[in-house]
Amino acid sequence: MKLLTNIVLTLCLIATSYNSYAQKKTHETMILIETTEGNMKIKLYDGTPCHRDNFIKLVKEHYYDGLLFHRVIDGFMIQGGDPESKNAPAGQRLGSGGPGYTIPAELLPQYYHKKGALAAARTGDQGNPMRRSSGSQFYIVQGTVLTDGQLKQLENYGFEFSQEAKLDYETIGGTPSLDAQYTVFGEVVEGLEVIDKIAKVEKDRSDRPVKDVVIIKASIVD
User: Fold this and answer.
1) What does the alpha-carbon distance between residue 103 and residue 8 come to, in Å, rounded to a whole number?
2) pTM, full prediction
3) Which of 17, 159, 185, 193 would disulfide-bridge 154, Cβ 3.0–4.6 Å?
């Protein structure tokens, strides 16, 4: 466990040192997530190299193939990436599994929780003050459309929004209350309607879909 964590940290440090170079790249990595409810194409951000490279690594290992979107909340987000969800029997509580390591937070103001944002799940602040991310669990934002008044109210509590973020939150929607709390490292560029479709399925008391929503395959695409 410790050796694996150290390896991941070393890779993150190397990736971060090349961050300025990565941001100049014109070709960003695209991931296709095929699910039983439709497909989503996701762009990974070069500005969050630790999360980007870890996600690419797991996709290449077919880590996500067969896993579930195990936690789904309409008007909020859809969550997957728990290895324990693969072939999990109905009713089993999920959400605590992972690859055995966490990832340093990469909280950047230009990446925010608009609809379609891909972000890393994590444990709470009390036991995780550095807000380190799960090594595999992620969520995709659905959220709701907000008014200017609602955004101003959040600003009164210390949140800061760029004009671009405000426009997104007031048009396509999102979950701005999560900004600067969880690492956003990509976004859905095709298939936003699939998020809505998954979010509206019937759930049990643990917010797990009654009928499994399966990640059939995750792959790198051009």
Assistant:
1) 8
2) 0.90
3) 159
